[in-house]
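Q: Fold this one first, please.
A: Sequence and structure below.
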Amino acid sequence: MKEFVRKEIIPNADLYDREERTPRELIQKMAQQGFLGAIVPVEWGGSGMDMVSLGSLHEEIGYGCSSVRSLLTVHSMVSYAILKWGSKYHKTRWLPGLASGEAIGAFALSEPVVGSDAKSVETTATLQGNSYVLHGHKKWITYGQIADVFLLFAQLNGKVSAFLVERDTPGLSMIPIAGMLGTRASMLAELHLQDCVIAKENLVGGSGFGLAPIATSALDIGRFSVACGCVGIAQACLDATLAFTSTRKQYGTLLKEHQLIQQMVTDMITNVKAARLLCHHAAYLKDKGDPATLMETFIAKYFASTAAMKAANDAVQIHGALGCSSEYPVQRYLRDAKVMEIIEGSTQIQQITIANCGYQQA
């Protein structure tokens, strides 16, 4: 996977960022490598990776391009939700295609006025005969511009429920979102649902099961992916900094000889190693089926995202004006790292959750 990232992703990552798109050709190559089906068991056509290996994959892709890693994030979330909570029909209908890359999945929870408070989604579903009719508006949907199926959350009889909505469903329309600060190539979209009719069997896991079992478990996978991707960002910042400070001179001395530079590099090295170990620990617990993995993933995501932001900020500072230009990728790392502190639970939500858990265990 490391060779793939260095050959296929890194040389073009800044171009993807400028063009705000991920080429279909790259997605197809990733599918051929088994990356899109990494979380899907072999019997459904996937790679059947264990969680430790999955984390390493998402770190490596994150090292090359956070936008591309975001595709793996939401695609894996949808695949995991169908695998864990879907009916036999759902699994047969979608898992082979998601594993092969013939279908792209996207996670449709956020709305214009609803983010962290997921239970308050305003999109509604009404049962009419053998169909559900959806009304509402979703926003910030990663890879919503190209997704073939959405795991979409809506209120059904006053309870959040999950549905599979195909791209070509009448009443569903998509509007691309451009001009984002970071992860610009993740092809965000708004979804508008107006008299959007889907089959009754497209309900996943039963009425009212959308939030606690389905969204929570899918978001745990997404949070884990983001945490590992943040390790990739931080490692990329460290590598860029080591290379730059080994050749750049000021006052007749290489930057790496300056003690304040050494202090920032030391923090990067330490935080990268710590973040990686936290991610590996969360993955180990996932492979064991230990429920403690949920909180350990919160901790890993909190630490890794803040570490990535600090590493990126220091990397830009060390690069000076060059770090603020398109000549060096550290400016992209900084913009992408800021997004990591917001998605899959903001830094503040992580702090509240981790602290509350600490008090409960005291």
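Q: Good. Now the second chain.
A: Here it is, same layout.
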Amino acid sequence: MDEKYAAPYRGLVPDGTANFYGMIANIDENVERLAKRLDTLGLSENTILVFMTDNGSSGGWKAYNAGMRGNKGSAYEGGHRVPFFIRWPAGNIGPARDVPNLASATDLLPTFVDLCELRLPRPVDFDGLSLAPLLRGKGEPPADRVVISGTQPNGPPVPHHNTAVMRGPWRLVNGKELYDISNDPAQERDESKRHPEIVAELQAAHDAWWRDVEPSFSDTPRIVLGDPRANPTWLTSWDLHGQSVYMQNQIEYGERADGYWEIEVASAGIYEIALRRWPAELDRPLNEGLQAQRIGKKGDQPSSVVKGANRARLCIAGLDLEQDIPLQAREAVFRVELPAGPARMQAWFVNTSTLGGATWGVYYARAAKE
């Protein structure tokens, strides 16, 4: 982010908050640019423009959280409730207004299917509901509709853990705390003892949903390589099984990632696999670091833990390959023949001049079928 966005707030609030406000200003500016570009192209009237956010706030919630409890990853409102704006002048979705009904990200696909009058190639049992009737004033979702939100990124899922079960104004948090956000938006008063019948109803709704989704817990989600609809495929450290890193500052400081990717090779053939320490957009030699911009527990320090790496190693589909890394290389590129089907992929950079050959897991990989 250019410093000009945060500059107006410097000295008025802590630097982290100034950066947070600066990013809001940056996003506002870019949404305006997008809207003006649509005007210039003559596309505004018949383009569905949506603005929404990721779940919860990871840092800015201390500065502003709209009176909600909790932050990113929490089962309270501040962890999962987000804004959703939709504009479509030619779409007959009515005038500007607030829509108070409970809605979910799972509603988006069936809503767009209906709004755009798309024909599905086969019947689909959507997890969400179409909001098209609501937007067009032709009906509302059932009043007793239940929406479930939760996150359990590590380990086998556990029923009711870090979960919110929502129906109307009611929120059942972690299977036991009950809040009425129409009277208590900050979720400060647990109503479970006053309304045990609502707790029981929402627990039963959760348990029915759990029985529906539990069979999928043993499925292995795989990243597909070689599909002509998405070739090349980018793999990142966030997708690693095992030891992974998922935040920009972890990449910046070079924290260790030593996991593996579960992949599905769509079709047999020759593949080019490029291994990177930095994202392609940065265009930086993999042995060079960045001067870390954050001042924190790790200090202001260079961030290239892979400095001195002179070999790259790739294990994929039963193959174990190594090759030298040229000086100033942005990536280490392997050309391999892969059979179709499920496989595991893992890659490292190696410094052979150190005792035992120090290794660092790769953060980014690009896989392209020739």
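Q: Anything worth noting on the second one?
A: Residues 97-217 form a domain with the Arylsulfatase, C-terminal domain fold (CATH 3.30.1120.10).
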